[in-house]
């Protein structure tokens, strides 16, 4: 129990940067951007960020996870940091150089030939974010979540400050006849300032780690480098599958949607704005993975490690199910955070919330092949998952529009979680309490069905829907307390003693 509390605490701290960052993005940026930009312009922003997410995986090639694995072993601990850092430094300079050389061609291919600066900015963001990947991983391995969260939050705050500087303060100064501001502000480049703010934030985040590059005390180990690449290679496929599932719907919706490119970009904007409401589930999943991965490796030698892993999956499912039903029970007030023109995409939300919950379960179930050094299982599972995503998107988008990517993501993550669980039972059995986990998730889905269909028999006003959602959510919490009454009573007795 103490280890679970420790993991929960680390998840909360690692999640602090994600939670506050996403909330700042959601409470400030999403309502703002979905009001100052058209659906088409917001679609362009979403389109480019989707490519960045995929390229981030290629740039880092999951070297953080390989670093966790070999830095946790006594025989390779000494040189793991320098080896991983130098590999990423060399590969980043090479990849950034290649992409920069082909920017004119890439701009034309993506339809942004008028503003190739967008791509140069993104390449800079990619390079800088990659160079801090191992230093951030070192903080996680050293169990320094507060410094990790502080630097991540600094990045987010700087991004927001400069975004409002460019999009609000600069136009304000121009209206007040401060003509010198025209030297740094161009009205036709408004979308580009969203990207430029990211570049400034990434640059400032890199500075604290410059000394980490200067003070590498260990040496580069060629043999270790080969082992780390072989270990990480299948995980790259897994990571690419995750990115494809999360973002491939954006470019495919742009090209395969039922309308013109301009009309489809509007759907892309609506889809991504509605998907922002799934932020609580995604940030919870990301925070859990950030804390759980080094946690699993640190405690892999314990005799009761498998029991701990099972309880971690149980706790994740419990919390994720509460988040799932909580968001859907109060979707009416939550949806007010995005612009009115973007709320037509809310029907995709249940599929995305469930998809991200299964993604978190995949992170938990997949620990067995990372501990057994059989990461090729992850590559195979993720490759099939990627095929599921691509095929379903191609088939469903022309018929269902923006609902297609949501269904495809759910189908893929469900398959990946199930495959990781089943293969783990045969190769590295872990006693997951699947009965309890099924009750948690099944109860949440039943609650969602009630929240969706029963209010149709009542007056169609927001206050009634909110009240009814609160009743359903409260009943679900009572249901959970009934299932876990023994654990709750034991916890209360422990508190009173």
Secondary structure topology:
Elements: H1 2-36, H2 39-60, H3 63-71, H4 77-101, H5 103-110, H6 117-131, H7 133-141, H8 145-175, H9 190-206, H10 210-214, H11 222-247, H12 249-256, H13 261-275, H14 279-298, H15 305-329, H16 331-335, H17 349-365, H18 367-371, H19 376-400, H20 403-427, H21 434-453, H22 462-483, H23 485-496
Q: Low-confidence spans: pLDDT under 50, at least 5 residues? A: none
Radius of gyration: 23 Å
Strand element count: 0
Into which percentage range does the β-strand content fall? under 5%
Number of helices: 23
Helix/strand order, N-terminal first:
HHHHHHHHHHHHHHHHHHHHHHH
Structural class, judged by helices and strands? Answer: mainly alpha
The major β-sheet equals:
none
- Binned, the helix content reads over 70%
Structurally, the number of domains stands at 1
| Terminal-residue CA separation | 16 Å
Q: Tell the overall outline.
A: globular
pLDDT averaged residue by residue: 80
Structure description:
With 497 residues, the chain is mainly α. Helices cover 81% and strands 0% of the residues. It contains 23 helices and no strands. It has helices at 2-36, 39-60, 63-71, 77-101, 103-110, 117-131, 133-141, 145-175, 190-206, 210-214, 222-247, 249-256, 261-275, 279-298, 305-329, 331-335, 349-365, 367-371, 376-400, 403-427, 434-453, 462-483, 485-496. Helix 1 runs antiparallel to helix 14. The longest helix has 35 residues, at 2-36.
Quick overview:
The protein has 497 residues and is an all-alpha fold. It has helices at 2-36, 39-60, 63-71, 77-101, 103-110, 117-131, 133-141, 145-175, 190-206, 210-214, 222-247, 249-256, 261-275, 279-298, 305-329, 331-335, 349-365, 367-371, 376-400, 403-427, 434-453, 462-483, 485-496.
């Amino acid at each position: 129990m103490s280890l679970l509390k420790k993991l929960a605490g680390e998840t909360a701290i690692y999640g602090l940067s994600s939670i506050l960052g996403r909330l700042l993005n959601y409470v400030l940026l999403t309502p703002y951007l979905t009001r100052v930009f058209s659906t088409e312009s917001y679609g362009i922003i979403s389109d480019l960020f989707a490519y960045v997410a995929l390229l981030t995986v290629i740039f880092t090639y999951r070297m953080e996870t390989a670093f966790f694995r070999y830095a946790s072993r006594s025989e390779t601990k000494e040189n793991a940091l320098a080896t991983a850092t130098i590999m990423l430094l060399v590969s980043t300079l090479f990849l950034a150089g290649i992409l920069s050389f082909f920017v004119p061609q890439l701009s034309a291919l993506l339809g942004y030939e008028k503003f190739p600066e967008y791509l140069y900015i993104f390449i800079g963001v990619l390079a800088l974010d990659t160079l801090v990947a191992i230093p951030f991983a070192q903080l996680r391995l050293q169990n320094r979540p507060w410094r990790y969260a502080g630097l991540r939050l600094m990045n987010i705050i700087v991004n927001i400050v400069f975004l409002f500087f460019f999009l609000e303060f600069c136009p304000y100064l121009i209206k007040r006849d401060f003509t010198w501001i025209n030297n740094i502000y161009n009205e036709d480049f408004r979308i580009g300032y969203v990207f430029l703010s990211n570049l400034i934030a990434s640059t400032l985040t890199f500075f604290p780690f410059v000394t980490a590059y200067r003070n590498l005390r260990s040496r580069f180990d060629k043999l270790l480098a080969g082992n780390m690449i072989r270990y990480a290679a299948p995980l790259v496929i897994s990571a690419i599958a995750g990115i494809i599932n999360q973002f491939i719907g954006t470019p495919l919706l742009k090209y395969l949607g039922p309308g013109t490119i301009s009309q489809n970009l509007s759907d892309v904007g609506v889809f991504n704005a509605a998907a922002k409401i799934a932020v609580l589930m995604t940030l919870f999943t990301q925070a859990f993975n950030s804390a759980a991965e080094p946690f699993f490796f640190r405690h892999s030698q314990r005799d009761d490690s498998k029991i701990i892993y099972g309880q971690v999956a149980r706790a994740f499912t419990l919390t994720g199910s509460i988040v799932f039903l909580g968001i859907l029970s109060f979707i009416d007030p939550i949806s007010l955070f995005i612009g009115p023109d973007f709320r037509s995409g809310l029907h995709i939300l249940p599929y995305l919330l469930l998809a991200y919950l299964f993604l978190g379960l995949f992170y938990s179930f997949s620990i067995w092949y990372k501990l057994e050094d059989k990461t090729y299982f992850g590559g195979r599972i993720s490759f099939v998952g990627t095929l599921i995503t691509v095929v379903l998107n191609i088939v469903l988008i022309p018929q269902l529009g923006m609902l297609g990517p949501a269904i495809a993501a759910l189908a893929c993550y469900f398959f990946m979680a199930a495959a990781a669980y089943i293969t783990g039972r045969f190769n590295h059995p872990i006693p997951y309490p699947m009965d309890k986990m099924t009750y948690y998730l099944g109860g949440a889905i039943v609650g969602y069905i009630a929240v969706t269909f029963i209010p149709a028999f009542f007056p169609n006003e927001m206050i009634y829907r909110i009240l009814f959602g609160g009743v359903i959510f409260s009943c679900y919490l009572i249901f959970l307390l009934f299932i876990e009454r023994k654990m709750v009573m034991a916890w209360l007795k422990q508190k009173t003693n």
